[in-house]
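Protein modeling request. Please complete all fields; requests missing the sequence field cannot be processed.
Requester role: graduate student
Desired output: 3D structure, token encoding
Chains: 1
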Amino acid sequence: MKIAALLIVVAGFASCKGHEKRVLVYASDKITADETKQHITIANGDGTTHHEQDLDFTTGDAVTLNVESAQGKYTVSIPDDGLYIANLKNDTVVGSRQHVGEGGEARITQEALKQKLDSLEKLVQGQNVSEANQNYFITPGKAVKITNETKAKVFGPFTTVSGSFDAGSVPAIYKFYSMKEMREIIGKLVKMVGKDSASAAAPEKAGK
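Delivered output (208 residues):
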């Protein structure tokens, strides 16, 4: 009987494990959330700058974000625990996990640059995007789960990963870009590898 009682207590503690849903909201204008953090309004300004807001929920139930913006009213679902990005911008954002501090070549070869260019061109087209690859293509009005690690560090669009940042202080690092940023990066890589610029024109149609 004592053993059975102990098992019940242990099971009770396990069932009380805290839930956490962390949502990074990206928008192209000022973000306002009410006291419940589930009703979000995006200002109808010029929308030329990047805005972020970090929302935390401790419920085990699914969370629904009710969004009101210049594009109208819609909802975004956060079904499970974990770290999400809710893209409320007018354009797609893309990104991936960053493997910082793992060493590498002191001098990047042309072949490595070509591989990077090919990978980025596929990413802006939404190709080879998967949980296993730890890369992400988030269209407007959608939320995507990035990781179960809610303490991971995410660097958003127009934010650089500082060389002084202590990568060991967080379980993982992720970097995201606006499509405009990514096209500029691809354009620079095209010049570096001397690739035919025609092949880089395709990303201009992506992310809308």
